[in-house]
């Protein structure tokens, strides 16, 4: 077994062993789903149609934005990354393994949420399963790479949490998770295109649940894919083993570019 | 021990902004020896080690680890050296057994799980890092630093924060490594540790090498007088502080009237001074309780050097 594969297996185990990761990866999104499923359909009857994609995007955000930056910052500040470096662990492993791990955990939680939504609340299942899987993959990758980027550039845990919340909270409110995008004022809906969650919801709704063509979902899919590539490039360019290493963190703002393009042209 | 050089540092310079942390530092370490890097806080020891470890790029000068340049060949370097960092950690859910396997995979060597036994961690092999004591973590860190069979091991304050028993264990482990041919570079504040373990030491002050040699050479290069401390039943010698053959009361009354009722003397001729002390006690009908002849220690020499470097203000 190579170092990379073994590292990945250790990371996956940590996702279950670590109480915080276990909570944010599984318990919190599933608990939130069960709770909100009890009353949300009475407030908003259309919520059942949004339930599977909405709860999946919520789970992905919780399992990435709420865990990966803090873990990476803590590893850098406590010297874990330096221990890794002097033992020949490449930066590529430290960037890619949390992403791959997140995709695995998010795939599992997405399956659980999909099954529970259909069984408990009669939520409609995807009509295009391949499109569902593609959207889930791109969504998980987009949020995971963004989370690693936040972990890479945030100078402190507090700054990392703040940056993550800057994406997380508006996404919950305006990303179309709880309220359909169509019900938002037009300007707000257009502005919400800046959020990865909005793009993910659009792709899920059109491609996976409405059964529209891939061409119809091309914009959100391309925006998500572009964000993955850009985030990864920025992670590699800005990665530092040591908290004292200075680097041009401001370049991380380039991560907004695909979403800004979506606001203007999408 | 042989004549081959494990480490050669030449004119090493490292600056942080306007501060020069390491200033044209030059020293070398023979293969199979233990070399101690000593110095006060902020002297540049950790920065020096980090340049050797490839964690920082020198601004000037060169480092060679068995001929490997850390800045140009880090992968070769990290398979040649083992490192225990001053500030290092592992993920809190990782167990010692997993850690040994984890790093072995990256080093492409067979996991040396036997090291857990050798370093007293067999009973804690499945304990999560977050639940381990400081001593256990230090032992694990040392075990990991040697798990891939490095030829040079760099240890930064390896016994800091350990209890006496754990220190003794770690010292024995280091000796064992040296017996096996491993070269060790040790950064420490503990003079007794350096004196006991190191074949050679270098004292760094403000990024420069102030003195280098065997612990005995470094100690002997300072004040060569021997300290004699004496306690008597009636305390006459302590009260009178008489002039004695070859000896003078140690630096004024405060030190002459040493702690616990001892009188202290500096002596150029310890044998004559001891005889004179015994004669004095006999003449004054006093009785000897304790007599200690103490050669200058490395610690005293260290204080002497650092005080001189700071213009005698320490």
Description of the structure:
The complex is a heterodimer of chains A (266) and B (314). Chain A has helices at residues 3-17, 19-43, 47-64, 68-77, 80-86, 91-121, 129-153, 157-174, 186-191, 196-209, 218-238, 257-265. With 266 residues, chain A is mainly alpha-helical. Chain A has one domain (2-265). The model of chain A has no long low-confidence stretch (mean pLDDT 93). Chain B has 314 residues and is of the alpha/beta class. Chain B has helices at 45-52, 74-80, 96-107, 114-118, 134-146, 164-179, 191-197, 215-220, 236-240, 252-256, 270-283, 298-309; strands at 5-16, 19-30, 34-38, 60-65, 81-84, 152-156, 183-188, 200-205, 208-213, 226-232, 247-249, 263-267, 288-294. In chain B, the strands form three sheets. A six-stranded mixed β-sheet of chain B has the order 5-6-7-3-8-9, sandwiched between helices. Residues 252-256 of chain B have low confidence and may be disordered. The interface between A and B is medium-sized, with 23 and 28 residues.
Brief characterization of the structure:
Chain A is mostly helical and 266 residues long. Chain A has helices at residues 3-17, 19-43, 47-64, 68-77, 80-86, 91-121, 129-153, 157-174, 186-191, 196-209, 218-238, 257-265. In chain A, 75% of the residues lie in helices and 0% in strands.
């Amino acid at each position: 077994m190579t170092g990379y594969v073994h590292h990945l297996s250790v990371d996956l185990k940590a996702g279950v062993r670590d109480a915080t990761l276990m909570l944010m990866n599984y318990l919190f999104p599933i608990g939130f789903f069960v709770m909100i499923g009890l009353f949300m359909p009475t407030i908003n009857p259309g919520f059942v149609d949004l339930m599977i994609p909405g709860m999946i995007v919520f789970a992905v955000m919780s399992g990435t934005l709420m865990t990966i930056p803090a873990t990476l910052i803590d590893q850098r500040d406590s010297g874990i990354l330096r221990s890794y470096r002097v033992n020949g662990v490449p930066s590529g492993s430290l960037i890619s393994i949390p992403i791959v791990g997140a995709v695995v955990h998010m795939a599992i939680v997405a399956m659980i949420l999909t099954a529970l939504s259909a069984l408990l609340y009669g939520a409609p299942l995807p009509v295009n399963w391949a499109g569902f899987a593609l959207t889930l993959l791109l969504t998980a990758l987009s949020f995971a790479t963004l989370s690693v980027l936040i972990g890479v550039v945030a100078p402190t845990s507090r700054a990392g949490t703040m940056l993550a919340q800057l994406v997380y909270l508006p996404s919950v409110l305006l990303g179309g998770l709880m309220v359909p995008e169509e019900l938002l004022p037009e300007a707000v809906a257009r502005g919400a295109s800046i959020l990865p969650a909005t793009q993910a919801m659009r792709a899920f709704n059109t491609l996976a649940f409405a059964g529209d063509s891939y061409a119809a979902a091309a914009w959100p899919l391309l925006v998500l894919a572009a964000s993955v590539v850009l985030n990864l490039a920025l992670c590699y360019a800005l990665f530092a083993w040591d908290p004292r290493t200075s680097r041009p963190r401001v370049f991380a703002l380039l991560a907004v570019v695909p979403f800004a393009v979506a606001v203007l042209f999408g | 021990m042989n004549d081959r050089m494990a480490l050669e540092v030449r004119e090493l310079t490292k600056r942080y902004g306007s501060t020069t942390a390491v200033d044209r530092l030059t020293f070398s370490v023979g293969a199979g020896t233990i070399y101690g890097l000593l110095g006060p806080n902020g002297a540049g020891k950790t920065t020096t080690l980090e340049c050797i470890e490839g964690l920082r790029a020198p601004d000037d000068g060169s480092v060679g680890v068995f001929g490997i340049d850390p800045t140009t060949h880090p992968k070769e370097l990290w398979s040649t050296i083992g490192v225990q960092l001053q500030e290092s950690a592992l993920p809190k859910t990782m167990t010692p057994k997993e850690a040994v396997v984890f790093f072995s995979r990256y080093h492409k060597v067979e996991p040396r799980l036997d090291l857990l036994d050798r370093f007293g961690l067999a009973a804690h092999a499945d304990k999560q890092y977050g639940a381990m004591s400081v001593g256990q973590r230090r032992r694990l860190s040392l075990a990991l630093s040697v798990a891939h069979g490095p030829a040079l091991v760099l240890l930064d304050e390896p016994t800091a924060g350990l209890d006496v028993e754990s220190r003794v264990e770690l010292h024995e482990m280091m000796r064992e490594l040296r017996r096996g041919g491993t070269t060790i570079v040790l950064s420490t504040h503990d003079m007794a540790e350096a004196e006991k373990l190191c074949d050679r030491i270098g004292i760094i002050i403000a990024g420069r090498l102030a003195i280098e040699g065997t612990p005995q050479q470094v100690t002997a290069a300072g004040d060569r007088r021997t300290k004699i401390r004496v306690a008597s039943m009636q305390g006459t010698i302590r009260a009178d502080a008489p002039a004695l053959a070859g000896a003078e009361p140690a630096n004024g009354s405060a030190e002459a009237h040493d702690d616990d009722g001892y009188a202290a003397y500096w002596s150029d001729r310890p044998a004559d001074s001891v005889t004179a002390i015994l004669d004095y006690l006999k003449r004054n009908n006093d009785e000897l309780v304790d007599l200690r002849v103490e050669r200058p220690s490395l610690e005293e020499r260290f204080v002497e050097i650092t005080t001189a470097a700071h213009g005698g203000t320490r």
